[in-house]
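I keep forgetting this: the sequence line spells out the residues, with the fold written below as integer tokens. I include a record here:
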Amino acid sequence: MKKLIAKIWRSVKNAYERLTSKAEELIPIAIKIVEGVKKVMDSKVDDVILSIVKDAIPGDADDILIDKITSVVEKWLPKILLELTLTQAIIGIENKNEQLQAILERLKLSSDEAQGIFYHGLCSLIIEKLSDGKIEWSEAVVISEYYYKNKIEIN
């Protein structure tokens, strides 16, 4: 397992080293956007999007970058979160099999992006839980991504 994780980390390191300077600039912003979402969830704000964007951008960011970040957050955050949210009707189903069938039917109607988030997160969670504490979440994410990209042929 250690050899596999070492190989995966080398792969991640190589991929990171290939990033352009633009990607290196945007990755910390993406992480700050996610952290901004978490922060907004814990506090009451009037303008959610403005609060998230304001926390995500560096103080000297240019207007083009601010507009791009705002556009991405406005378009994708509500869309993905809405698609990933379960409806009250599904929550009210007591039979777990019927509940799962309803969730999967809802997932089929979701965008490719929402499905990707679900599948990637689910795979990582299963790896983490099956490892009995030997693999952390961050490692599970990398392992699942590596396997999907390099080991599994998906039909």
